[in-house]
Amino acid sequence: MTDKRPRLIYLVPADRAEALVRLRERFADEPRVEVVVDRRERQRAAPPRAEPLRHRAPVAERDPARAVPDLPADGVRLVQPLEPVGRVHETTSLDELVTRSLAAEPAAVSELWWRTGERVMARLRLQVGRRRADRSTSQVLGRILDELPAYDPQDEPLQEWLDDVVDRFARAA
Predict the structure, then answer these.
(1) Number of domains the chain contains
(2) pLDDT, position 49
């Protein structure tokens, strides 16, 4: 059985109806891309509840304009939910994880982040500080995934490439 959950989710503010319609038309035939109205702004302004805080699944904040270059980006977000790390890729090589992550295989993306995330975050913390780095986790992961198609293992090891991506991210942050 094939997993039918979306791999990428466009979150569109409720007041951006034109972007919502346009994105839904653009991705109508792509079942792995979902376009939804982002209603979380109202939830953030709501008074605190007595129920326990539930943590959201981690996501990678991707660049929404990569798939739709002429999309006005104000308020539109593109997220890629991460799967829980399982055992399916515990013996998969890093090169194969990169290949499978490029194909947007959810388990491979999660495993790639699990194996490289501490190095990425340690480097980012040194450059921008712990608090800022920790608030930027989903954005730096998204940047890595956005730039991953340009990675060539013949040019440099993955660790050096990741360092370059993190350095560019930190300079722009």
Answers:
(1) 2
(2) 54
